[in-house]
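Quick review question:
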């Protein structure tokens, strides 16, 4: 199963990075849900409760689609970004 690296691009959460398994059945919503869970757990475990709370209300979006994430040309160093800026 392909593991992909995701990083948050945001004023508050910039730099948070985690790896998520991306399968053909994955959706952008399921990936964003996993990102939110990872961020919330990270901040809660570090006792950064204000950040954990802000994370719960953060509205992230991805710029790439699932097909791009699963492409054979994607290297292990590729980072996919989740952003919270408005379009």
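Suggested answer, residue by residue:
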């Amino acid at each position: 199963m392909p593991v992909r690296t995701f990083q948050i691009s945001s004023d508050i959460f910039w730099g948070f990075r985690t790896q998520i398994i991306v399968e053909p059945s994955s959706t952008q919503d399921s990936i964003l849900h996993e990102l939110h869970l990872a961020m919330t757990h990270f901040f809660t475990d570090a006792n950064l409760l204000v950040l954990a709370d802000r994370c719960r209300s953060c509205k992230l979006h991805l710029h790439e689609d699932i097909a791009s994430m699963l492409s054979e040309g994607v290297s292990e160093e590729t980072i996919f970004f989740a952003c919270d800026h408005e379009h």
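Why it works: The mean pLDDT is 92. The first strand starts at residue 3 and ends at 9.
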